Amino acid sequence: MQESRATEFRRKLIEWKQTPESSRRPQRALARELGTSHQLLAFYLKGLEKWQGEECWGQAREIRARAIAEDRPLTQWEDQQARAYDRAALHFTTGYMLRYSIKRMKKDSERGPLCWHDIQSLKMLAPKFPEAQELLEKCLQNGIKKRKRFAEIVRETPRQEGEATSLGYAASGISVLSTTRTTPKLLLKSFSKGIRKVA
């Protein structure tokens, strides 16, 4: 398929998503109007936020590159535009990453109860993402995986011969564990900043 049609589909999907859900026509009807398949539209919809982020980053780079090529500073208007595109790109990119995280947790929940950290992440995400709220309610009904103390995790983790096993030495890994678990919170903070309209 030509790139122009792919862009057309994505822009139509953006308009479709911006329509209130109560008055939004079925996705299959949109596919018929565009002369394509429901499956192909679903494929573009899945990666729409990622594409929007890349488009906004590209617009911001283009504005700055033009000023560099002309060997001049950005005008006030150009600076505002570039910053607006930056914010929009951050919003779309973090939204895509957060939804990917929710999908990962949904798959994990199908194999058994989620851990305490994932439940906390879902609680943070629920106000902004309906799919997170839906998954959270389901997980709370099914129960939460028992939270282990750090000392238990250290004792149960396999080690190489000669590796230190004392709790004091192993505790240096706490900061790493904490960092990996705070990612949804940091991403949500970026996402929640919202988008200022690009004129």
Sequence-ordered SSE layout with sheet pairings:
Layout: H1 3-18, H2 27-34, H3 38-46, H4 48-69, H5 76-111, H6 116-125, H7 130-142, H8 150-156, H9 167-170, H10 174-191
Helix pairs in contact: 2-3, 4-5, 5-7, 5-10, 6-7, 6-10
What is the tally of helical segments? 10
Unreliable stretches (pLDDT < 50, length at least 5) are 165-182
Percent strand: under 5%
Structural Rg: 22 Å
Count of structural domains: 2
Sequence of secondary-structure elements: HHHHHHHHHH
- Kindly state the percentage of residues in helix: over 70%
In total, the number of strands is 0
Q: Taking all residues together, what is the mean pLDDT?
A: 80
Q: What is the distance, rounded to the nearest whole angstrom, between the alpha carbons of the first and last residues?
A: 31 Å
Structural class: mainly alpha
Q: Based on CA inertia axes, which overall geometry fits? A: extended
- Tell me the major beta sheet: none
